[in-house]
Design a protein that fits this description.
- Helices cover 42% and strands 15% of the residues.
- Strand 3, helix 7 (198-202) and strand 4 form a beta-alpha-beta unit.
- Helix 1 packs antiparallel against helix 2, helix 1 (2-24) packs parallel to helix 4 (73-96) and helix 2 packs across helix 3.
- The chain has a six-stranded mixed sheet, with helices on one face.
- It has two domains: 2-130, no CATH class; 135-372, Metallo-dependent phosphatases (Purple Acid Phosphatase, chain A, domain 2, 4-Layer Sandwich).
- The chain has helices spanning 2-24, 33-58, 64-71, 73-96, 101-131, 165-177, 198-202, 226-234, 265-268, 275-278, 323-330; strands at 134-140, 149-154, 182-186, 213-216, 239-240, 244-248, 255-259, 288-291, 309-312, 336-339, 345-348, 366-372.
- The mean pLDDT is 94.
Length: 373
């Protein structure tokens, strides 16, 4: 039922976008009726593709090539809508600016051509960015830390569909090449039925680090039988931090690594975050690094709890550039390192995988190499 409602909502929303693209963009292009017909056909094919994508995500097993093609329409139509908005504004300005008719026609044709080229190039660029995961390196000063530690952070991998065992194998090899002290996965690891994710998950057994791999749940784990996901992850010899703390390093030379459940637990009424419980058994004289999936978990932290660093994900950095504006409405930070209070810093990983269309624009996928100094 939830999938049906989600599919209907998505199709309804994109039907509205198509109406806007048709009336405010395609209608005004200086092209033949036949070309406009093909443009409209392209829009409707993409809308049908969104429906097939939803079916392929959960019910129908398409081969990888077909699934890739069906994954694109959400991103394609969104970028085309953004282009249409820009075109609409510029077209209205062009109509109001006093110009000779010949010059106005020249600028109109130039606007038409450049708008189509812009939509095409943005789509191509976003597909490229999604498949090329960047190793981001950042040094973070932690007060009272007695020695340096290297943390490799993965986040928002979203196993399922195009995020398969081969993708995870490549990520694991790159993480191991960095020779980390520990690996942390800050939620949204699995985004499909756990049985369909088992081959990809097995690749995480090959992660190598001095102190091991640690995981917290994100909001998407709640959608796919969170209990089963936690159990399967534990079977991979990955430590799941469930509102708890573990000490990393030798006594008085290391730091507390704490982890909490996601804020979505309040809505699900299970696996709810509890920062007080998570900090109960920490070593008070050592620094504390907290794993919390959503940056806005900062609202749950009291200054007296003395969290030195929060590692988060969830935002995907906006994934597609215009979405950054929407993400900013819900989360205090979108990506990168921020000094939230005089005593608490936060780093937000932009996501190692992607959700929905295999596209990223202005928000590259990342593996984060964090050196605590």
């Amino acid at each position: 039922m939830h999938l049906l409602l989600f599919t209907v909502a998505i199709l309804g929303a994109f039907s509205l976008l198509i109406m806007y693209i048709s009336k405010r963009f395609i209608r005004h292009l200086s092209i033949s009726k036949n070309l406009k017909h093909y443009f409209h056909l392209f829009l409707y094919v993409n809308l049908f593709g969104i429906f097939l994508y939803a079916m392929g995500r959960y019910y129908i097993d398409f081969n990888s090539t077909i699934y890739f093609l069906l994954s694109l329409p959400i991103g394609v139509l969104f970028l085309l809508f953004c282009t249409a908005v820009i075109y609409d504004v510029l077209h209205l300005l062009l109509k109001t600016v006093p110009l000779q008719e010949k010059r106005r026609t020249f600028f109109k044709h130039s606007l038409d051509l450049s708008s189509v080229a812009l939509a095409s190039s943005l789509t191509a660029r976003s597909i490229y960015e999604a498949r090329h995961v960047v190793l981001e390196k950042v040094n973070i000063k932690i007060p009272n830390l007695q020695k340096s530690y290297k943390i490799l952070q993965l986040s928002d991998i979203h196993i399922g569909g195009l995020i398969d065992a081969d993708f995870i194998k490549g990520i694991v090899e790159r993480v191991n090449a960095c020779k980390p002290d520990l690996v942390v996965i800050t939620g949204d690891l699995v985004d499909i039925d756990i049985e369909k994710a088992k081959d990809a998950l097995q690749e995480f057994r090959n992660l190598n680090s001095k102190y091991g791999t640690f995981f917290i749940v994100g909001n998407h784990e709640y959608f796919h039988n969170i209990e089963a996901i936690i159990q399967r992850v534990k079977e991979l010899n990955i430590r799941v931090l469930e509102n708890e703390t573990i000490y990393i390093g030798e006594k008085d030379m290391g730091f507390n690594l704490s982890g909490v459940h996601d804020l979505f637990g309040y809505r699900a009424l299970k696996f709810m975050p509890n920062i007080a419980k998570a900090l109960q058994k920490r070593e008070p004289s050592s620094p504390t690094v907290l794993l919390a999936h959503q940056p806005k978990f900062l609202e749950e932290i009291k200054e007296s709890q003395k969290i030195d660093l929060v590692l988060s994900g969830h935002t995907h950095g906006g994934q597609l550039l215009p979405f950054k504006l929407l993400v900013k409405l819900q989360q205090p930070y979108i990506s990168g390192l921020h000094q939230h209070t005089p005593t608490t810093q936060i780093y937000i990983n932009k996501g190692t995988g992607f959700w929905g269309p295999p596209m990223r624009l202005g928000a590259n996928a990342e593996i984060t190499e964090i050196t605590l100094i």
